[in-house]
Write a structure and sequence with these properties.
Aspartate Aminotransferase, domain 1; 123 residues; single chain; alpha+beta
Length: 123
């Protein structure tokens, strides 16, 4: 997935917004208001591009075992986050599926009112 496609896909998620809380090279996608929760982080100064995504722990291990471009989340909880290296070896559909899962995991952790709002907007 190209960087422009990746950004468009992430920014199209209902309620998603961009922040740079760590440094000027780590683009963080959040959800849930001003003190939102992260669902994706992009290391903009990496070549190839890398994105960290939240993942179900069992799925995280299975994805890492199946794809060399998916590794434990860099600087993240390794049980819950994967780093996805966008080197062209992964189908765009898989990257999109992992983004969708990360987003859904964060939506499910939000207060009920926000959960309902984002779920209805994403359908």
């Amino acid at each position: 997935m190209k960087e422009s496609q990746l950004r468009n896909y992430l920014e199209a998620k209902p309620g998603a917004y961009v922040d740079y809380p760590f440094d000027e090279h780590t683009r963080v996608y959040k959800l849930g208001g001003k003190k939102g929760k992260m669902f994706a982080l992009i290391s903009e100064n990496e070549d190839p591009l890398r994105i960290n995504l939240k993942c179900d722990p069992a799925d995280a291990l299975a994805l890492r075992a199946e794809h060399t471009a998916i590794i434990p989340g860099y600087h993240m909880n390794k049980k819950l986050w994967n780093t996805v290296i966008l080197d062209g070896s992964l189908p765009d559909s898989l990257v999109a599926e992992m983004i969708d899962q990360s987003y859904a995991l964060i939506v499910s952790s939000l207060p009920l009112k926000l959960r309902e709002k984002y779920r209805s907007e994403s359908q």
